[in-house]
Amino acid sequence: MSEPAAIKLSVLDVAPVWRGSSQAQALRDTLQLAPKVEGLGYHRYWVAEHHNTLSIASSSPPVLAAEIANATSTMRVGSGGVLLPNHPTLVVAEQFGMLEVLHPGRIDLGLGRAPGTDPLTALVLRRPTGGGGDFRRQIAELEGYFSENGGDGDPQAQVVAVPAPGHRPDMWVLGSSPASAALAAELGMPYAFAHHIAPQNAVRSLNLYRDEFRPSAHLERPYAIVASSVIVADTEERARRLAGPLAVTSLQLRTTGTAGPMLPPEEAAVYPFTPLERQVIGEGAGRHLVGAPETVGRAVHDLLASTRADELMALTTVHDPADRLRSYELLTELVPLAAPSLAGGAEE
């Protein structure tokens, strides 16, 4: 197997909550992990937005990103992503403009259009239902707020998102479908594809993004991240055991739409799966890259070769912080790292 070309490695984190632990501990685990992966050479660290999900503590990306930026010094930090239809664009611009002022050249604003929650919670969030047209409009509003010249129309022409003007973070379109890829290409924005959500759409979406990309003032050529669920351990048996809790939670989310705190590995190992549930788990196995280094190395090589992504972002949901860090260590040995840099984002 030939080695993949040097690319950037990054981290996606949801601050997983474990049974017998707490949401507060999940957030502390994130803040302890971030400087350690920075020391391993990881390029960026993103946190996701979820609501009313007891297995995930990352409900507020700007707050958590601020703490991660304070705990690190070289990695880019940001959202993977802010689910834009849940929020007034003025508030998002103020939050991320402030982050960019406090941590210049290090902040990413990844934007998604999904609710990140169940229908009832989405209603409580008062989420609009306009779909893609609203998402496009909200991105345009953000561009206006971050511009030193303001927007062309309401509300940007009348309202200043202090301190956003002139302090634009790198803005990304996030998605898991050709529709999101087409939007990123049309707007000339970098694109992050969620392979851990829809692996079947990865190649088509990333090819479409590159083929239809239009250069913009912020990005001259296409730049794509592929985000994937990755668990690497020293042996196949160990990796499968570490991935057991993820299988249970994934099953719960797919069958009931909700999940409680994640089970520790010893509890997941004796979970009473029915034959039908095992079939469901098997059908979703392509979402995760799990195994010993040789196994995951082949899977990573195939993923990068097929998608031609510029960057691999690993979501590693593992119970023990030491095992989690070990997975990130092993991944750096499987993928030659491009030299990280503080300045710049997508084009570096």
Automatic annotation (TrEMBL):
Residues 11-306 form the Luciferase-like domain. It comes from the Bacteria. To bacterial alkanal monooxygenase alpha and beta chains. PANTHER family: LUCIFERASE-LIKE MONOOXYGENASE (PTHR30137:SF6). This is LLM class flavin-dependent oxidoreductase. It comes from Actinomadura graeca.
